């Protein structure tokens, strides 16, 4: 099963290494990881997507919680959160087929961000399935490159990672 | 106080109650050593950085305080790695200060540069790279706090050379403000109620005690618990000394080389109280068959240990200093009824212990390691510290030397670090000068840090070094004998090295015991000599540590008799 985990960490050099080396040391496989700034300059936020049994999820959360630079950990439920990731796709095109390709893009709400005489670059966000379907349709035209960001996740409603008391109950930490 | 970063570190040591540090100077830490010189801060100069870190570890294990060591950048710091990993896996509080090249040189592959934070991340509780002297007071405060609170562990502070020299207005913070760490581990009362209820229903309970009891100083609660309801206790290697070895309910160590009674009790019990343990693979045997008939209750400070190796029925997460007394208190009204329920089991287990003690076949001609260790155990006082290296002698020490209180058995349990013993014994003696300190080592292990004999001689550190000399890598040959068709690949020492002469050359008195009667005639006298002594005891090559649970087997599938 696929899981999404948000980790709020102190915005300091070396913290990402600590998190990543823990995954590597404990043989946790992850599908994607993205890290970026947050509403507060004190913190960075890491979003991790991974697959694994309940046991692995449990260990992953606990081991993350042990790292002193980790301020909060949140496991997202798909129904309570939104996930987004971006994909850039460069596809071959000519005057002959450009309109056809743009039609397909429109159906998928992919945006054109670059047009050249022989290529197009699209930006598409959303679920894996949608991106996959889009690339499948572009494939016959000749895809030159695909690049994807890791997905990020945010809880719906007023719930935030900092109101998540999970870490508190695990370790008695004064989270924030 | 307007002082430089190096002096700020020394002042912070004083504030933290550090009485002694271990280290080895070098380019990047010269400013720090200059301040050590000026302030006359007590410092032990070892002969290798690995000696310094193990000594700090031995000091920490013997005293319960944070051990402190210093090394220079690059090779100095990388020489600490084995010691840091040893402390990390055994949850020993250390603060290691390493020098780093000056800030402008970081990342340029400068002379003696190594990425210490990168290297130590997986083997520390936390680490810091300090580029600015102004951060030092806060970082030192945090480092000691993190090292000693919660589940203890090593913290590395990598300090750029220019940060030692830069001047700051020194103020040591009163409090630690960490956003992701509080060091406070309250337990949940409801979990303890559930544990009491489970014990009320049990008929065949066993206590499985580990190193967490040592680090939380809760052995008195443990002994009270065992005595109040007559529960048999077994312990891990790290938990030796928590239970009274003379009490009838103490079954000895469990696991791969554990006692028959301890392993059978684990396999037969219907309730296992794991207290301050992490269910290491050396102790569980095949993990799916560990305590197969039991409800397992796991008391531990570290939430991540729950269900990590063994799935448990109930966890009591929190500081044992809180949870154990509360457990005792809540148990008090039911002790008589529990005692009655468990009487038959207790008698059964105690009988197993009497029928199958740790034993060995005497050899009419040669001194055996087991015999020598038993003999020394009877000669030593109850408050003797025993340090060990790693291998057969370590297991025999665990089996045959009676450890009466925690912090008296100093051994590399988790990492199994050969070469640990000598420097650790040295650190232990410096931490607990009133106690007798013995080291059991082997002719393999002793050579791995034998340079520290020079340190021991220089500071006249009164430890008794007992080398169990079998001229082979004992544990390796035992496995080769049992599982590799006696193909003794690179495990036989055809060495001309004379360990007694090495000791003498380093300034330590050395003796060799070969004849059986010398255990009676010479050994007691040598052990009572003043100052450091090395005793080289020659034992036969072929001896197995028994019982033994082979890898991948259940705890009740012990091999009881070997070829030797």
Automatic annotation (TrEMBL), chain A:
CDD domains: ACT_AHAS (cd04878). Its EC number is 2.2.1.6. Residues 4-78 form the ACT domain. It catalyses: 2 pyruvate + H(+) = (2S)-2-acetolactate + CO2. Keywords: Amino-acid biosynthesis, Branched-chain amino acid biosynthesis, Transferase. Pathway: Amino-acid biosynthesis; L-valine biosynthesis; L-valine from pyruvate: step 1/4; Amino-acid biosynthesis; L-isoleucine biosynthesis; L-isoleucine from 2-oxobutanoate: step 1/4. One of its GO terms (molecular function) is acetolactate synthase activity. Transmembrane segments: none annotated. It holds the Pfam family ALS_ss_C. Gene3D superfamilies: 3.30.70.260, ACT-like. Chain A, domain 2 (3.30.70.1150). One of its GO terms (cellular component) is cytosol. GO terms for biological process: isoleucine biosynthetic process; L-valine biosynthetic process. PANTHER family: ACETOLACTATE SYNTHASE SMALL SUBUNIT, ACETOLACTATE SYNTHASE SMALL SUBUNIT 1, CHLOROPLASTIC. NCBIfam families: acolac_sm, PRK11895.1. This is Acetolactate synthase small subunit. It comes from Pectinatus cerevisiiphilus.
Automatic annotation (TrEMBL), chain B:
Residues 192-324 form the Thiamine pyrophosphate enzyme central domain. Pathway: Amino-acid biosynthesis; L-valine biosynthesis; L-valine from pyruvate: step 1/4; Amino-acid biosynthesis; L-isoleucine biosynthesis; L-isoleucine from 2-oxobutanoate: step 1/4. It comes from the Bacteria. Keywords: Amino-acid biosynthesis, Branched-chain amino acid biosynthesis, FAD, Flavoprotein, Magnesium, Metal-binding, Thiamine pyrophosphate, Transferase. One of its GO terms (biological process) is L-valine biosynthetic process. InterPro entries: Acetolactate_synth_lsu, AHAS_TPP, DHS-like_NAD/FAD-binding_dom, THDP-binding, Thiamin_PyroP_enz_cen_dom, Thiamin_PyroP_enz_TPP-bd_dom, TPP-bd_CS, TPP_enz. Its EC number is 2.2.1.6. Its cofactor is Mg(2+); thiamine diphosphate. Coiled coil: none annotated. Residues 4-116 form the Thiamine pyrophosphate enzyme N-terminal TPP-binding domain. Binds 1 Mg(2+) ion per subunit. It holds the Pfam family TPP_enzyme_C. GO terms for cellular component: acetolactate synthase complex. Residues 389-537 form the Thiamine pyrophosphate enzyme TPP-binding domain. PANTHER family: ACETOLACTATE SYNTHASE CATALYTIC SUBUNIT, MITOCHONDRIAL (PTHR18968:SF13), THIAMINE PYROPHOSPHATE ENZYMES (PTHR18968). This is Acetolactate synthase. It comes from Pectinatus cerevisiiphilus.
């Amino acid at each position: 099963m696929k899981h999404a985990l948000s980790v709020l960490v102190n915005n300091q050099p070396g913290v990402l290494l600590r998190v990543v080396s823990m995954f590597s040391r404990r043989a946790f496989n992850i599908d994607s990881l993205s890290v970026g700034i947050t509403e507060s300059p004190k913190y960075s936020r890491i979003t991790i997507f991974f697959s694994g049994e309940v046991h692995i999820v449990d260990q992953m959360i606990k081991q993350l919680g042990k790292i002193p630079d980790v301020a909060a950990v949140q496991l997202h439920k798909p129904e309570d959160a939104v996930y987004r990731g971006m994909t850039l796709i460069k596809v071959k095109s000519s005057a002959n087929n450009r309109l056809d390709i743009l039609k397909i893009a429109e159906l998928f709400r992919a945006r054109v961000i670059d047009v050249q005489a022989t290529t197009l670059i699209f930006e598409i966000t959303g679920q894996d399935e949608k991106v996959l379907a889009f690339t499948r349709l572009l494939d016959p035209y000749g895809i030159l490159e695909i690049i994807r960001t890791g997905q990020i996740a945010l809880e719906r409603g007023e719930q935030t990672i900092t109101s998540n008391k999970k870490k508190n109950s695990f370790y008695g930490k004064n989270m924030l | 106080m307007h002082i430089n970063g190096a002096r700020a570190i020394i002042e912070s040591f004083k504030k933290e109650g550090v009485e002694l540090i271990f280290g080895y100077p070098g380019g990047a830490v010269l400013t720090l050593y200059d301040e050590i010189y000026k302030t006359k801060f007590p410092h032990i100069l070892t002969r290798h950085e690995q000696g310094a870190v193990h000594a700090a570890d031995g000091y920490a294990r013997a005293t319960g305080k944070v051990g402190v060591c210093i090394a220079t950048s690059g090779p100095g710091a990388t020489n600490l790695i084995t010691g840091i990993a040893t402390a990390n896996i055994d949850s020993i509080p250390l603060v290691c200060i390493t020098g780093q090249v000056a800030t402008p040189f970081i990342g340029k592959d400068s002379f003696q540069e190594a990425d210490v934070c990168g290297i130590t991340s997986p083997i520390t509780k936390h680490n810091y790279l300090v580029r600015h002297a102004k951060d030092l007071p806060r970082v030192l405060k945090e480092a000691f706090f993190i090292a000693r609170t919660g589940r203890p562990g090593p913290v590395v502070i990598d300090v750029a050379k220019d940060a030692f020299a830069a001047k700051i207005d020194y103020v040591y913070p009163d409090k630690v403000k960490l956003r992701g760490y509080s060091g406070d581990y309250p337990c949940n009362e409801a979990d303890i109620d559930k544990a009491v209820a489970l014990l009320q229903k049990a008929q065949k309970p066993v206590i499985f005690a580990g190193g967490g009891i040592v680090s939380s100083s809760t052995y008195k609660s443990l002994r009270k618990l065992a005595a109040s309801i007559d529960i048999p206790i077994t312990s891990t290697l790290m938990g030796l000394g928590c239970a009274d070895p003379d009490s009838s309910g103490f079954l000895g160590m469990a696991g791969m080389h554990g006692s028959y009674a301890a392993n059978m009790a684990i396999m037969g019990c219907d309730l296992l109280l794991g207290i301050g343990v992490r269910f290491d693979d050396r102790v569980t045997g095949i993990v799916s068959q560990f305590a197969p008939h039991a409800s397992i209750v796991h008391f531990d400070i570290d939430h991540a240990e729950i269900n990590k190796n063994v799935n448990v029925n109930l966890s009591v997460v929190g500081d044992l200093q809180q949870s154990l007394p509360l457990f005792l208190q809540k148990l008090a009204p039911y002790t008589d009824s529990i005692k009655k329920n468990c009487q038959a089991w207790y008698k059964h287990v105690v009988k197993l212990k009497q029928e199958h003690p740790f034993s060995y076949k005497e050899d009419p001609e040669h001194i055996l390691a087991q015999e020598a260790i038993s003999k020394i155990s009877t000669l030593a006082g109850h408050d003797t510290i025993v340090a060990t290296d790693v291998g057969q002698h370590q297991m025999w020490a665990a089996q045959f030397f009676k450890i009466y209180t925690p912090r008296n058995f100093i051994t590399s349990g988790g990492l199994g670090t050969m070469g640990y013993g000598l420097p650790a014994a040295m650190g232990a003696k410096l931490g607990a000068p009133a106690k007798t300190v013995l080291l059991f080592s082997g002719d393999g292990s002793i050579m791995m840090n034998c340079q520290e004999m020079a340190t021991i001689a220089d500071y006249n550190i009164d430890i008794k070094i007992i080398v169990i000399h079998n001229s082979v890598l004992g544990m390796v040959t035992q496995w080769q004998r049992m599982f590799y068709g006696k193909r003794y690949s690179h495990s036989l020492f055809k060495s001309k090295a004379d360990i007694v002469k090495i000791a003498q050359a380093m300034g330590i008195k050395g003796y060799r015991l070969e004849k059986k009667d010398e255990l009676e005639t010479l050994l007691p006298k040598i052990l009572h000599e003043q100052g450091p002594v090395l005793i080289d005891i020659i034992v036969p090559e072929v001896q197995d540590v028994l019982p033994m649970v082979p890898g991948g087997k259940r705890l009740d599938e012990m091999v009881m008799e070997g070829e030797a």
